[in-house]
């Protein structure tokens, strides 16, 4: 086992002895005899510090070792305290303040080497654990914001994230409201605490209180165990109330109370709890209109909409479409183990000409289907099937012009039959003769 060990003791002989012992065991050793130099030496980020409890420049301040310990703790540098028999109490205090261990002077070489080895191994395990945890965390979701309207929103998000104000996100379905809420949390000072999401449309009315506030064991028939509510889980963090417009009117006062005071009671509990969760809510409903119709409480709306962010529809941010499509292509090619595909120019144009009523969610579905249907490495427009998209024969239907519709249907039948009049007539449900008459009328010669 190797590592850099910093020995801090004002006794020169002790420094020398430890230097010899630890170096011969393969460690790199730095010694300091002056407390003022300890923190300077610690910038080398030692793996361990052996700190003398009585390491002090004057004889009156017995607490100097503890002060240095605190500074090393703040730098996340592990410390083993060294103490004489007389100051074991002080060493115990040091352990309580975060020292990893202590050794008594005079020490046994074998024991000291064993302890150093253990501490360094422990340190390494902790680091590996941390790395593994990071691997297990969901990858950060990519956030595409190239268009001018999204660039503006980005700026606003960074400003409002830092405040603790409640935020209401408005926007059509599938525009990315949930993702935006997570992004605000990531940029906020609460990023280390939890982001807890709850979809108001998905909670049955009878379970609303239990879900948000928790319940005690036995509070109602199905309450077999005590349950922690979302407000408690989001304490110090962010609570995202999605589809807030779906919260029934009679339940709104309960939410209003916790938003006003932070206080609430779990179902079946006699004591109040407090949550300081920051509230981000989202909806595609017109809440002002709902207030007008008496479906949503005005006072609750005021609590929720301290700041309002408008998520643009995809058709208002067409410049983002190619990047969003590419992101989805990469995702689905990986998911379905297909070679990475590239959009043809024509396909890209087609995606940008469509109005996307289902926004990014619809775009992702269209790309998923296209990836499944395509072979090779290019994804062309024929694989893109958008609902409600105006294909030539539908154009006729949309124009409500009977003659153009008839021509479009004849063209389709001729194409499908390979210009075989009898077969095309069967497809159209008319006689061959009737078809021939229409071809003449419209001066059509086949396709
Ligand atoms: N800026 C973005 N960059 C990349 N992907 C995005 C972006 N915004 C949204 N998405 C993706 O679009 C999909 C829909 O996003 P999200 O669920 O956040 O929308 P929503 O507005 O909350 O939808 P709903 O109103 O239905 O709850 C998700 O797959 C999300 O990952």
TrEMBL record:
Sigma-54 factor interaction domain location: 143-372
Domain Response regulatory, residue spans: 4-120
Keywords from the UniProt entry: ATP-binding, Nucleotide-binding, Phosphoprotein, Transcription, Transcription regulation
Gene Ontology biological process: phosphorelay signal transduction system; regulation of DNA-templated transcription
Residues that bear 4-aspartylphosphate: 52
Alphabetical list of SUPFAM superfamilies matching this protein: CheY-like, Homeodomain-like, P-loop containing nucleoside triphosphate hydrolases
Regions that span the bilayer: none
Single Gene Ontology MF annotation: sequence-specific DNA binding
UniProt-listed SMART domains: AAA (SM00382), REC (SM00448)
InterPro entries in alphabetical order: AAA+_ATPase, AAA_lid_NorR, CheY-like_superfamily, Homeodomain-like_sf, HTH_Fis, P-loop_NTPase, Sig_transdc_resp-reg_receiver, Sigma_54_int
A Pfam family that the UniProt record links to this protein: Response_reg
PANTHER family: ALGINATE BIOSYNTHESIS TRANSCRIPTIONAL REGULATORY PROTEIN ALGB (PTHR32071:SF113), TRANSCRIPTIONAL REGULATORY PROTEIN (PTHR32071)
Protein name (database record): Sigma-54-dependent Fis family transcriptional regulator
Lineage, broadest ranks: Bacteria, Pseudomonadati, Pseudomonadota, Gammaproteobacteria, Chromatiales
């Amino acid at each position: 086992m190797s590592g850099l060990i910093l020995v801090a003791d004002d006794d020169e002989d002790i420094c020398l002895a430890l230097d010899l012992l630890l170096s011969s065991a393969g460690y790199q050793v730095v010694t300091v005899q002056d407390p003022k130099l300890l923190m300077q030496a610690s910038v080398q980020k030692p793996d361990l510090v052996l700190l003398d409890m009585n390491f002090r420049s004057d004889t009156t301040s017995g607490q100097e070792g503890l002060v240095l310990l605190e500074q090393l703790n703040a730098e996340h540098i592990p410390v083993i305290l060294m103490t004489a028999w007389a100051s074991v109490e002080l060493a115990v205090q040091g352990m309580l303040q975060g020292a990893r261990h202590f050794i008594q002077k005079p020490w046994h070489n074998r024991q000291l080497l064993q302890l150093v080895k253990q501490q360094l191994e422990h340190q390494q395990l902790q680091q590996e654990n941390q790395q593994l945890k990071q691997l297990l965390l969901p990858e950060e979701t990519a956030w595409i914001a190239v268009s001018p309207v999204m660039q503006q929103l980005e700026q606003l998000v960074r400003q409002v994230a830092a405040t603790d104000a409640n935020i209401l996100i408005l926007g059509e379905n599938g525009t990315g409201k949930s993702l935006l809420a997570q992004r605000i949390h990531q940029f906020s000072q609460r990023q280390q605490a939890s982001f807890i999401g709850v979809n108001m449309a998905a909670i049955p009315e009878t379970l609303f209180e239990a879900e948000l506030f928790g319940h005690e064991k036995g509070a109602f028939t199905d309450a077999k165990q005590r349950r922690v509510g979302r407000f408690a889980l989001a304490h110090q963090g962010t609570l995202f109330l999605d589809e807030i417009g779906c919260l029934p009117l009679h339940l709104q006062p309960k939410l209003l109370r916790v938003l006003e005071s932070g206080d609430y009671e779990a179902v079946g509990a006699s004591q109040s709890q407090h949550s300081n969760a920051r509230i981000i809510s989202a909806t595609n409903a017109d809440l002002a209109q709902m207030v007008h119709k008496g479906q949503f409480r005005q006072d609750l709306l005021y609590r929720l909409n301290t700041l309002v962010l408008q998520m643009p529809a995809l058709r208002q941010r067409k410049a983002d479409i190619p990047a969003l499509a590419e992101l989805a292509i990469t995702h689905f090619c990986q998911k379905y183990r297909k070679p990475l595909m590239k959009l043809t120019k024509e396909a890209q144009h087609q995606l940008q000409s469509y109005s996307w009523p289902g926004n990014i969610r619809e775009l992702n579905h269209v790309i998923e289907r296209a990836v499944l249907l395509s072979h090779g490495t290019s994804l062309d427009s024929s694989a893109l099937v958008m609902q409600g998209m105006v294909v030539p024969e539908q154009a006729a239907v949309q124009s409500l012009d009977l003659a153009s519709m008839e021509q479009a249907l004849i063209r389709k039948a001729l194409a499908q039959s390979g210009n075989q009049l009898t077969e095309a007539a069967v497809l159209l449900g008319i006689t061959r003769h009737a078809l021939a008459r229409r071809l003449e009328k419209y001066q059509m010669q086949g396709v």
